[in-house]
Structures are given as structure tokens and as C-alpha cells.
Design a protein that fits this description.
The chain is of the alpha+beta class. The chain is built from 4 helices and 4 strands; from the N terminus they run ααααββββ. The radius of gyration is 26 Å and the shape is flat.
């Protein structure tokens, strides 16, 4: 992938496949075709494969960051990453927010009550 003509050949092949898969017009842009077919552009996949090969070849002597796909069900929950620190002054909450449609003293629905 060092030469521009190699990159254009790969894009051309992926474009033909994407047009046939999406049943789109020839005038549709390559980026739009990748989105319509839910496929990653071939250049990005090739660069990822090259980086992964280089990491395995070097065997970790140089630190490199590699992203990998994780299924939705294996994503960490945002609440698990939050750290709540309580001290002697935060024993009672200052703000009570009801956003789930539960009843507050102001009525039913979204409401915020500030305690002072």
C-alpha cells in the first residue's frame, strides 16, 4: 500500500462489490457505498492488518495501540467506571432528579428538587 495506484485498484474492486451489494447507482460515492453496505473501507482494513502484522513481527518490543471490535453486550457499563467519593459533608443528596416518570411532590414526570 505504498503506491497510490495500488490503493486505487483496491478501492475500485471494493466499489464494484459495494455497488452490486447495495444495488446503487454508479454515481454514488465510495464513502456512501461503504456506509450503505455496512463495510469498512478496504484501505482502513488493510492498514489495520499491516499494523497488526508489524506488532506480531516485532513481538511487542515497541508499544503500539491496537483497537479491536468488542460486541455490544461486552461493553463496560458507564456506571462501573464512575468513582463516587463520599465524605462527611455528602451524607444527604442536594439534588433529587426524577426522570423516569415517577411521582414527585411537584407532580408526575421529569422534575428536579434541590434541598438546601
Amino acid at each position: 500500500m505504498k503506491h497510490e495506484f495500488d490503493i486505487r485498484k483496491y478501492i475500485r474492486v471494493q466499489r464494484i462489490i459495494n455497488i452490486l451489494t447495495a444495488k446503487a447507482f454508479r454515481t454514488t460515492s465510495n464513502e456512501a457505498l461503504c456506509i450503505l453496505t455496512c463495510l469498512t473501507p478496504i484501505i482502513i482494513k488493510t492498514e489495520e492488518a499491516v499494523r497488526l502484522y508489524n506488532v506480531r513481527k516485532i513481538r511487542g518490543s515497541q508499544p503500539q495501540e491496537i483497537d479491536y471490535a468488542v460486541e455490544n453486550r461486552n461493553w463496560p457499563h458507564p456506571a462501573d467506571g464512575a468513582i463516587i467519593i463520599e465524605d462527611e459533608y455528602t451524607k444527604e443528596p442536594n439534588v433529587l432528579a426524577c426522570t423516569d416518570g415517577s411521582k414527585c411532590e411537584l407532580g408526575v414526570g421529569s422534575c428536579t428538587v434541590i434541598h438546601k
